[in-house]
């Protein structure tokens, strides 16, 4: 363990870089509360989405790196801001007219459009927990409504009342000239109307610290005095974010790049509450295929969690989330095959690496320091080509080819590969088949393919991928393809209807030399 901690001090992977920042903030001593607290935030105004997953999985990676580096106990809180006022109706839910009637209510009082839970927030919170449990995250769920109503935030709410003017001095100048009206009406306190139940954005007319109350005016003109404790008010979200950091003593939180100005403001507010703000990290947002931000309320041309998992294992999604969190990345269907294959390559590399290199391997972070052994080496791109040439939706047919290549492989033992086999069938049917396009070979390409078919039909050599790849190169050189990639492009486009693919020698090893020779013969016949 001591050796691992020492290696962690030099690891270059970004979770360890973040862990060292946390350790520095703590002075390399465990916090007085006895643990390092990590937090992720979630607004249940819409269904959980892939950005929620990204934040939790990345925070979990930093948490594990911190525990490895410091040896300190850690906790992860997934906080739901379910007392926030309901502002607009998402486009991807039913009963939208009903939800329009609930605009302004706390999310935990908005009716569930799905008719299954006590409120829309309860529905979305349940989906969030189901979502997180599905991936085996270790976390504690925290509800804003429960914390406000139970009094767990009361101490900090009283601090906010006492330091009202200081909070205002921080926030009001940031509202800008275009928000002159908002500057006149701003208050860090949002009363929950005892008349309508709605969260009101109204000025605070008076404060009484000794009674712990504020006075405001209802929309009908009546002045009302309410306590700031017990769930009678909620803080404006930036002040709420800072208060939450202070009340829970959060040590680390990450957030999207669009929240950088808000986070800077929340840090200043956290100091008003008398606590040091957490170590933080911003991450870039996901874009759809056209380069537009993916919206949780509108959906778009990006990809959802369920869609990804329909086609590939969750390890590939975690790998995609690990990579370059501070770079904007396009998230769409075509990234899936590459993500699956890159994860498999890193997993294969891990067993051969020295401990120092292992800490910088993505699979160390994906599996919290305990990656499984490498599986059968069949790439996703290879599976897609097998589906294409086999012309089948039956996973058992593909497994017959895989077992001929690797007899010890099985769907029961190689679960990720089985997921990829079934996913590749669906991916090919939905994403490849509609746009697949074969072309006829030119004269030189035809002669080269005929030569390759002849060699494979009478094959007497070894049956490894390297053996087959060697003869493919020999034929390419014999027919003077320059560059060599033109020869491989011809193979893929004529035989498989794709512009690129896996190493063709590997394809022959799995599909079989006789079957590949027959494939070449049939495709050349169809092109006459």
Question: Concise description?
Answer:
Helices cover 49% and strands 10% of the residues. It has 528 residues and is an alpha/beta fold. Among the domains are: 56 residues; 84 residues, Arc Repressor Mutant, subunit A (Orthogonal Bundle), CATH 1.10.10.
Supply the key terms.
528 residues, 5-stranded parallel sheet, 3-stranded antiparallel sheet, 24 helices, elongated
Task: Explain what this protein looks like in three dimensions.
The protein has helices spanning 2-8, 14-25, 50-70, 96-101, 120-134, 144-150, 154-162, 164-171, 180-185, 237-248, 260-272, 305-311, 314-322, 336-350, 355-358, 362-366, 380-390, 395-405, 415-432, 443-457, 465-478, 485-496, 504-511, 513-526; strands spanning 36-42, 74-80, 140-143, 189-191, 206-208, 213-217, 223-227, 233-235, 252-256, 279-283, 286-287, 329-330. With 528 residues, the protein is α/β, with parallel strands linked by helices. The strands form four sheets. It has a five-stranded parallel beta sheet with strand order 3-2-1-9-10. The chain has a three-stranded antiparallel beta sheet with strand order 5-6-7, with no helix packed on it. Helix 8 runs antiparallel to helix 11.
- Sheet with most strands: strand arrangement: 3-2-1-9-10
Average of pLDDT: 93
- Molecular shape: elongated
**Distinct helical segment count:** 24
Structural class, by secondary structure, is alpha/beta
CATH topology of the domain at 443-526: Arc Repressor Mutant, subunit A
Largest sheet: number of strands, sense, barrel closure: 5 strands, parallel
User: C-alpha Rg, in Å?
Assistant: 29 Å
Multimeric state: single chain
Poorly predicted ranges: none
Helix content: 40-55%
């Amino acid at each position: 363990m001591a050796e691992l901690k020492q290696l962690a001090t030099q690891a270059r992977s970004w979770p360890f870089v973040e862990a060292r920042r946390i350790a520095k903030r703590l002075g390399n001593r465990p916090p007085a509360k006895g643990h390092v607290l990590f937090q992720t935030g979630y607004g249940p105004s819409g269904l959980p989405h892939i950005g929620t997953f990204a934040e939790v999985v990345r925070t979990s990676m930093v948490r594990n790196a911190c525990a490895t580096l410091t040896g300190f106990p850690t906790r992860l809180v997934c906080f739901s801001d379910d007392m926030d006022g309901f502002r607009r109706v998402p486009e991807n839910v039913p009963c939208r007219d009903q939800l329009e009637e609930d605009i302004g209510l706390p999310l935990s009082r908005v009716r569930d459009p799905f008719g299954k839970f006590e409120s829309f927030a309860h529905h979305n919170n349940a989906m969030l927990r189901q979502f997180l449990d599905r991936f085996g995250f270790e976390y504690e769920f925290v509800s804003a409504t429960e914390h406000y109503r139970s009094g767990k935030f009361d101490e900090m709410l009283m601090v906010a009342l006492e330091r009202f003017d200081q909070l205002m001095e921080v926030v009001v100048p940031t509202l800008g000239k275009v928000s002159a009206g908002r500057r006149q009406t701003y208050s860090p306190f949002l009363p929950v109307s005892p008349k309508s139940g709605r969260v009101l954005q109204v000025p605070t007319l008076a404060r009484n610290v000794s009674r712990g109350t504020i006075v405001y005016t209802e929309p009908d003109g009546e002045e009302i005095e309410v306590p700031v404790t017990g769930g009678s008010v909620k803080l404006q979200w930036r002040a709420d974010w800072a208060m939450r950091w202070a009340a829970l003593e959060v040590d680390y939180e990450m957030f999207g790049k669009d929240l950088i100005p808000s986070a800077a403001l929340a840090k200043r507010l956290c100091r008003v509450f008398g606590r040091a703000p957490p170590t933080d990290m911003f991450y870039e947002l996901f874009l759809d295929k056209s380069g537009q931000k993916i919206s949780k309320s509108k959906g778009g041309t990006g990809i959802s969690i369920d869609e990804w998992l329909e086609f590939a294992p969750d390890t590939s999604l975690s790998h995609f989330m690990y990579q370059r969190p501070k770079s904007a990345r396009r998230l769409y269907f075509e990234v899936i095959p590459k993500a699956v294959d890159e994860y498999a390559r890193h997993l294969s590399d891990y067993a051969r690496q020295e401990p120092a290199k292992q800490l910088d391997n993505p699979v160390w972070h994906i599996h919290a320091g305990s990656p499984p052994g490498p599986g059968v080496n069949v790439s996703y791109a290879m599976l897609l080509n097998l589906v294409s040439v086999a012309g089948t939706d039956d996973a058992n047919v593909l497994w017959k080819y895989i077992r001929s290549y690797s007899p010890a492989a099985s769907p029961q033992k190689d679960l990720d590969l089985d997921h990829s086999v079934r996913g590749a069938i669906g991916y090919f049917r939905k994403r490849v088949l509609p746009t697949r396009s074969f072309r006829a070979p030119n004269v030189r390409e035809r002669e080269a393919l005929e030569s390759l078919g002849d060699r494979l039909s009478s094959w007497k050599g070894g049956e490894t991928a390297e053996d087959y790849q060697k003869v493919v190169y020999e034929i390419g050189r014999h027919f003077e393809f320059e560059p060599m990639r033109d020869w491989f492009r011809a193979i893929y486009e004529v035989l498989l209807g794709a512009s690129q693919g896996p190493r063709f020698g590997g394809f022959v090893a799995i599909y079989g030399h006789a079957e590949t020779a027959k494939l070449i013969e049939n495709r050349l016949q169809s092109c006459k």
